[in-house]
Amino acid sequence: MSTWNKHYHWKTKGCTPWAKNHITQETVGKSVTVGSSGSVKVDRLSAFEGDVELGNRKGKLITIYDCSITYAWSGSADDGTEASGTITFPEVSHEIEDDGEEYRFETEMSTASSASTQALYEAVRTQLAPSLRPIFHAFRQSLIDAHAKDLGHDSPASTSGTSTPAPSASAAAATTAASDSPSASKPATNSSSSSKPSVSTSSSDVRVSSELAASISDLWDLLTNPAKIPMWTRSPAQSEPKPGADFALFGGNITGTVVSVDAPKQLIQKWRTPQFPQGHYGTLAINLTEGGDSTKLELILSGAPSGDEDTVEKNLETYYMRGLKSMGLGTIL
């Protein structure tokens, strides 16, 4: 295996269909007893949203997943009263495991309330839903055991170096906000710029750059593929690397139009945040240069509103660079 492949190549395998099937098999049918003869159970998996991937970089397996899972439940009380509803785990992700947190769930009952149905619902809330948590905590290892061999790991024993993307505190806060609230997810900007009657643009360019441990083709894919962009932005994306195509990132808080494409080396975009004066766009150049053991990513924004240079630089560093580094692409020394 070449030095690049062994230490720097980023290889991933999509595992979402497998994950949905595995979680269904492990959770559907689970039940708990209520009273002397009653019970509540998980009837079916009614919604599975999100993506699951297993990556291999620097000889380590990297689990990448962020899913929302909803179940339908039903129950029958001692007196024959029946009830039903839903259990939702809004975030089953590698970040929950990395942070050592517990999985949060939401429960609902769609049946009319009575003493009997409330007893069933209480069992769902305090017993049935919590009983699913250990399955989610074990999911990471199950994912590795099932797919490690497809990424060049001969046996599960080789996963001792398993890691997951560990986002910095600021990047994690940004991505959490992006998924929770459109208003909270807006990149920080100088609010005074939105009140300017005319646009005075900066005479200097805003530049940020970083060496990232990925091949140029993999990094280009992460920056332009709408299926890959959410892996570092934590929100849906509109993207097509084609001149004239519109794009939208971070829930629509970064928007613009593609000007030119030189894949996989350069992407030029008309680029704006909601706090830019109405109708005003800067020009963002995304430049990629592959080295022997990493790829340099340089972002150059020209035409930023005067006075907003520091804020724009912070946005580019936080939302782009730190987002990508949260996937484990920080420079390998």
Automatic annotation (TrEMBL):
Any Gene Ontology biological process: protein folding
GO molecular function: ATPase activator activity; protein-folding chaperone binding
InterPro entries cross-referenced by the UniProt entry: Aha1, AHSA1-like_N, ASHA1/2-like_C, START-like_dom_sf
Region spans: Disordered: 150-206
Residue stretches of biased makeup (Low complexity): 155-206
Annotated Gene Ontology cellular component terms: cytosol
Record-annotated Activator of Hsp90 ATPase AHSA1-like N-terminal domain positions: 12-149
Pfam families with a match to the protein in the record: Aha1_N, AHSA1
Family: Belongs to the AHA1 family.
Protein name according to UniProt: Activator of Hsp90 ATPase AHSA1-like N-terminal domain-containing protein
